[in-house]
């Protein structure tokens, strides 16, 4: 069987949904599981709605109405002679509005409420796609991924219980895949208690890998708006080159350092069972794209990864003690407690610096804890540039009109923290 994953850009509007349906129709409808993300920028919009709801801001209603209107527009453009087939979408609207009509549960952690609300993006998109496929004459079956993917209660970054998850997936889908295309959601799971969790932003790739691993899939295909894996993000780099083949190791390294084309957790489950991963263009589905697999040939060209909106935090012990194991253990423990991933770290005898994504809500909780033992200085609005298989020419190329704050080199990788001078 095969697993397809379509991201938000592929289903951002009615024409996108039609295009996805066209790609699915070209496949054998049996033994195909399709993972779909929220439409377009819906996840960002739901995040904004969630924070407004938690703070009980007056714009909660208008934020929700904007989200609802965009989905209704897609439904209106897709609905044919049987608009009632989209009724499950309107039932989800009712569920969301019921939640928003109540005050936030004071005893429920904000991250738990976040998962409950933001997960509706995937539920809405998959209900719409499934309804359209059935309306178009293709037999598809909608499955709630929250019933299948079991996680702990690390809200916003749920850790998968692989044994339970594989048991639920195989028991539910093994026979179903013999008769129908299965449509399900990326990004979501649930706890043993039935509370919705999410797997981390852009976690739909990871979801596809989870299903593929549990079902012993022949392949996974991630459909993107780029022709394959490029050596740089075309948003930040003028001249990009498509990479035809990548080893699992190079793909893991690129994802770890922030390459947005693949979620960092995606590769390992596939590597464990040697399942190839294809990255192809939904705009040009006839082209082969990039294949990631068990190859011997390493990455042939330098690859550039740009992470924007970074914060550089430097810690200095108040008692001028060395940055040793005891201090590092405390620092890492506090970063882990507040769910903040460190993108780069560097230390001297009496200072420790890290670069992290700018997450104001989480940093606002972390920094007061760190200030109990450390003096803190930080810079915001920075870029983290990572180059795999670099040389000095490639470094000079990315430092034009940039102020270099931190440089860290290994044999194959250089990381540069810079501030834009433009």
Automatic annotation (TrEMBL):
CDD domains linked: AAK_AK-HSDH-like
Domain of life: Bacteria
Keywords: Amino-acid biosynthesis, ATP-binding, Kinase, Nucleotide-binding, Transferase
Top-level EC class: transferase
Catalysis: reaction(s): L-aspartate + ATP = 4-phospho-L-aspartate + ADP
EC number: 2.7.2.4
One Pfam entry name: AA_kinase
Biological or metabolic pathway of the protein: Amino-acid biosynthesis; L-lysine biosynthesis via DAP pathway; (S)-tetrahydrodipicolinate from L-aspartate: step 1/4; Amino-acid biosynthesis; L-threonine biosynthesis; L-threonine from L-aspartate: step 1/5; Amino-acid biosynthesis; L-methionine biosynthesis via de novo pathway; L-homoserine from L-aspartate: step 1/3
Keyword DNA-binding recorded: no
Domain Aspartate/glutamate/uridylate kinase: 3-281
Record GO terms (molecular function): aspartate kinase activity
SUPFAM superfamilies for this protein: ACT-like, Carbamate kinase-like
Family classification: Belongs to the aspartokinase family.
Entry-linked NCBIfam families: asp_kinases
Protein name (Swiss-Prot/TrEMBL): Aspartokinase
Source organism of this protein record: Larkinella bovis
